[in-house]
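ARCHIVE CARD
Drawer: 12
Card no.: 0347
Subject: one protein chain, sequence and derived structure
Cross-reference: see card 0346
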Amino acid sequence: MAVKTLEDLLTEGVAGRRVLVRSDLNVPLDGNTITDDGRVRAALPSIKRLADAGAKVIVAAHLGRPKGAPEAKYSLSPVAGRLGELLGAEVCLAGDVVGEQAKSVTGALADGSVALLENVRFDPRETSKSDTERAELAAELAALTGQGGAFVSDGFGVVHRKQASVYDVARALPAYAGGLVLAELDVLSKLTGDPERPYVVVLGGSKVSDKLAVIEALLPKVDKLLIGGGMAFTFLAAQGHGVGSSLLEQDFVETARKLLDANGDKIVVPVDIVVADKFAADAATETVGADAIPDGWMGLDIGPRTTDAFAAEVAAARTVFWNGPAGVFELAPFAAGTRGVAQAIADSAAFSVVGGGDSAAAVRLLGLPEDGFSHISTGGGASLEFLEGKELPGVAVLGEGA
């Protein structure tokens, strides 16, 4: 699919033009403190290139899941501050999405300066199921750019959403794919095309239900699928093991059993588990066999034998995709599995892709070198849907006007 790119837009010339950029700035916050600024840093290159070329840059983004109305805890104010620090220039935050403040702030932009609109999800039309309502918001966003305006789609983490600032605005303005979106598509295409083998996928996270479609899509293509995180307990239950009070999706046990029966040579599940008597950093812990989880105890991490087994599979791989932590890495007693697997990926010679916000956050929280991975994706859900073979609306729409 042919799309126009940021390079095409820069070649056309952007000096003095207002350019609307849809970024993914959905960062984790502790109060007003950003705890992981990875997405802000990932959004920076496209914004900076436009500003350096003299564009008047208007950034649109969301944060969290507000209910279509302003909520102070979801304000992009901390993001504006961090973006300004990274750019080395003030980023003015409009107090609304497309209202009088947005018009005033964007209208006053100087060449080479950047403004951030308030959380687009404060406007209920952003996520509306109504094509008409979304188109109305898109038209108002487009109007902020005025004569000669353009749109750059650079938020890969949202391109799987048919939303006003992602999809509809690309029909209201000349639209271009940003560098981040292009890089993500290039990397993920390598995973779905003809990857170097052995091809190993490491999946973690809470629920089998969240990953079932990608498991089914990837199994025919991979050499090994390593299962960790909370989702592992549904597979252990499918093997007939008791899982204590661990996270379990009872409705998916039979599905997991069928997957194991059909792909027993590919799927690798934990052989030992770190269990705890409660979900807390000060819990009593014990490492037990995966078939010996005590009643009333919950599994919160893979054990050392499993970590070593996963690391050995990764070490032999030529291509690795990792999505989802192996345990509750935010709590120190249950971080060793995720750290061990991540370190093995970083140490390997494989082409390695880290997909998903939790996995990327784990890399940074655990202090692992980001340059140890070939690519750290910014789009968890979008990455998974691409690997499932689904069309991404925010990408498909970019090809309509190319």
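Annotation on reverse: Residues 188 and 296 are 41 Å apart (CA to CA). The mean pLDDT is 95.
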